[in-house]
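User: I'm curious whether this sequence folds into something compact or stays loose and floppy. Could you predict its structure so I can see for myself?
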Amino acid sequence: SKEEMPAYPHSFLLSAILSPDYVDLTGDGITPDDPGDAIRFNYTKIADKNKPDKWRIPYNNKANYNQGLQTDNRDDKGSYLYGEKELWYLNSIESKNMMAIFWVSNREDLPGMDENGNAQAVGQHKKLDSIKLYSKSDYLSYGNNALAIKTVHFRYNYSLCQGVNPNNANGKLTLDSLWFTYNGNQRKDTSAYVFKYNSNNPAYQTNYYDRWGNYKNPSRNPGALNNAEYPYALQDSTEAATNAAAWTLDQIKLPSGAIMKLITKVTIMHLCRTGVLLSYSELQVSVLVYQAPRAV
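Assistant: Here's the prediction. I'll summarize afterward.
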């Protein structure tokens, strides 16, 4: 059987922010002659209905297995979801005096996938490389050769969740660091915010999660049960906290040298109701900041 849903808008893009005294003087949208303040957001369409971004769940050429009753092998089912969508990326934000330009490039992970499980070519999904702030008059006069007043730089790697991609061994796009430069100064990343992630970085496997969405290797379940049969959180709080921290942000090194440390804890509660043992896990994240020692 097959169920098909007609096209529908799944999100709405912010197009402008207007001050209370803004007036569209000539009825042609935001233009320099309009009194009041207005900020306009401009987008680029990367994928449309003629060349859509394709997605599929599960992210392979297989189907999700639903066993049904274990005592009846005639009710076993397989299912998958497939869809096509547009992709829009923000390319600039402009006010009367300033303009911010968003520079993007192709990301190498998680390409689109067609209904048969074939990965699309890399090119539709983008990553943000930098944001450059210009004087609007300079940018309109000199284009990309204008001098940027301030630039935010982003650096990435593909270290987390190795094996998630169908066409390479890379992991998911992971933010490594970001830093600022001013007035065209090409100062390197010596004053960067550096992001470190938890050492628990297991390879990607489908269905390796518990009912709370945290990572869980089914080999740790009792009785050799898989996660569909035993979706509960592990009852060892230390191991449950390790699982909950998989692929998560662990610390941020600040430009001052201070380190912001994120500590993941899991609280497990057992509720006994009508003879049934239920489990509940609560994820808590604490933030500690350690200041680097100053030279005397």
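Summary: DSSP finds two helices and 15 strands in the chain. Residues 237-244 form the longest helix (8 residues).
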